[in-house]
Amino acid sequence: AMEKVIPLGSPRCDVLENESYKKRFVKNFYKDNPELKGKRILLFAPTFRGGGMGNCSYPIEKFEADKIFDSIEEDWVIAVKMHPYLQERPNCSDKYKSRLIDFTSEYDINDLLFVTDLLVTDYSSVIFEASLLNIPMMFYAFDLYDYIASRDFYYDFEGFVPGKIVFSENELINCINAKDFESEKVNGFKNKFFDDLDGKSSKR
User: Fold this and answer.
1) Which residue has the higher pLDDT, 204 or 86?
2) pLDDT cut 70: percent of the chain above it
3) pTM for the structure as a whole
4) Which is nearest to 101 in space by CA: 27, 34, 175, 21?
5) What is the mean predicted confidence (pLDDT) over 126-149?
6) For residue 84, which of 115, 58, 65 has the smallest C-alpha distance?
7) Distance from C-alpha of 46 to C-alpha of 103, rounded to nearest angstrom
8) Distance between CA atoms of residues 36 and 6, nearest Å
9) Mean pLDDT, rounded, for 105-114
10) Is-contact 110 135, C-beta < 8 A?
């Protein structure tokens, strides 16, 4: 019954409202990654396809970093945060090596949001945390209809997500260049799913 559910909020999100934590993380992040200072960071954080650990994959040929770098402005870097179950990693040619950074085994994804200018994901729940920080998001959902057929969602994906949905890499590139992220959707999404934006869920 609904009255048995107590909406205390998500303790995981408290840190997103904590300014001193954020400042400390950002400072340490750029100390450890000085080459990223002044760059725009695209965080690529896809989820897996398949059953779960040991039985999942990501079709990495769908994310050709070279093709993206060839077409977007030079101050963009791509930080990769693959789902911990995934073995696949995007790769690129030598000329772009310094702009493709794999943070899969470093940093918590919520912490990386503090330095993210654009989140590119598909079906990951990280969109809830990202919405709290008002981060522009793009949904690279090339297999949306297959995914719905095999797994489906709690909500109608297309009406639900707080950002632009793209179905191909060309579309992804064009929208990055046009800054067409539909970020006006973020606020409504945040207000729909979070009652208390006060960073006090753990306390509650």
Assistant:
1) 86
2) 88
3) 0.90
4) 34
5) 93
6) 58
7) 13
8) 42
9) 96
10) no
